[in-house]
Specification:
The structure is a single chain. With 334 residues, the chain is α/β, with parallel strands linked by helices. It has two domains: 150 residues, Glycogen Phosphorylase B (Rossmann fold, 3-Layer(aba) Sandwich); 154 residues, Glycogen Phosphorylase B (Rossmann fold, 3-Layer(aba) Sandwich), CATH 3.40.50. Helix content is 37%, strand content 19%. Strands 3-2-1-5-7-8 form a six-stranded parallel sheet, sandwiched between helices. A six-stranded parallel sheet has the order 11-10-9-12-13-14, with helices on both faces. It is globular and about 60 Å long. The N and C termini lie far apart (49 Å). Its EC number is 2.4.99.23.
Length: 334
């Protein structure tokens, strides 16, 4: 093997969780070059993986919304770049039309994708001359690693290696001067949100343990929710609007991340931060994060997890430090 193309186009969390495929391949095939095709919006996320040799990207989402001529020209240019290499194998671990079209345009005699029943869009099957086995009974993230291994003839038997290096530059916020918890309350769908009152209770508990609370946001609606939470938590900080890179930098600087099923919480897990992910309307078993003593997911996908369950999860990844007070009671401190 000299060069392999991985295709995972979107979204932030899915791409982050797919990154260990790169380390798996390079472990088995020393010296192999690994390229990655993604949407332009997520190209930087892939670049932060030290094992990726070339990132191929196009403004696919942007063109779908705007139909701008400039985006179409950028897509055409990206096709030329895509076809500049001949690959020993193409691994499409996305499985929808847009990823299949990328696979079909790329140059290789071996192009692997999911079985029809496992595809996100069944019509994507036209692009593949090789198939992964039936979807394994495990979470989606390990499943991607297993599928790539099936295509290239190796077994996955190591913990995931995300191998991420976030660039540090003058855009980063000043490092916090005390232990900080970053609270990702926002998510892509209304039904996936956790109640503001629950966030208030958890944040006040974390404050009592000595943690400073920071609330990031990415839209006007998310900022409004952050302000609602801050009203319940005196001293909580509503951050300015940050770029994806600045959020990643901040995640590296904080002590704890707690959030809903959203891409930045997956990024926190990949950056090896103590992480709690809260699921309300999606499956923690299939889409959650887990690493003993460091990352845990809660929720069954059908009910709102209670505050106590969230606090217990936080205790599992970021235990309070306790000390006896003068009157003999136990006080918590970070």
């Amino acid at each position: 093997m000299k060069r392999i193309l991985i295709i995972k186009v979107t979204s932030l969390g899915d791409i982050v969780e797919a990154l260990p495929v790169v380390a798996d391949i390079k472990r088995v095939f020393p010296g192999v070059k690994v390229d990655w095709a993604s949407d332009e919006l997520f190209a930087d996320i892939v670049r932060w993986n030290a094992g990726v040799d070339r990132v191929l990207y196009a403004p696919l989402r942007s063109f779908k919304k705007s139909r701008r001529w400039s985006d179409l020209k950028a897509i055409a240019a990206s096709i030329g770049e895509l076809r500049a290499e001949r690959y020993d194998a193409i691994i499409d671990i996305h499985g929808v039309y847009k990823s299949a079209i990328i696979a079909w345009l790329a140059r290789s005699k071996r192009c692997y994708g999911y079985l029809a029943k496992d595809l996100g869009e069944r019509g994507a099957a036209f692009a593949y001359n090789g198939r992964f086995g039936p979807r394994p009974k495990c979470d989606a993230w390990l499943g991607m690693r297993i599928s790539a291994g099936e295509a290239l003839g190796y077994t996955v038997d190591t913990p995931p290696d995300f191998n991420m290096r976030i660039p540090r530059d003058g855009d980063a916020l000043p490092a916090p001067d005390s232990p900080t918890a970053m609270i990702f309350h926002a998510t892509s769908k209304e039904e996936k949100k956790w109640p503001v009152a629950h966030w208030g209770e958890v944040c006040r508990e974390l404050q009592a343990r000595g943690l400073r609370i920071e609330l990031p946001w990415g839209s006007d609606a998310e900022r409004a929710t952050a302000l609602e939470i801050a009203d319940l938590v005196p001293g909580a900080v509503v951050l300015p609007r940050l770029s994806v890179k600045q959020v990643a930098q901040r995640i590296e600087d904080v002590a704890l991340v707690v959030g809903t099923d959203t891409g930045f919480v997956h990024l926190a897990h990949a950056l090896l931060k103590p992480t709690v992910m809260i699921f309300v309307a999606t499956s923690a078993e299939h889409l959650g994060v887990r690493a003993p003593g460091r990352s845990v997911s809660i929720g069954d996908g059908h009910h709102v997890p209670p505050v106590k369950v969230a606090i217990d999860a936080i205790d599992a990844v970021y235990p309070p430090r306790s000390s006896a007070s003068a009157d003999g009671s136990i006080a918590s401190a970070a």
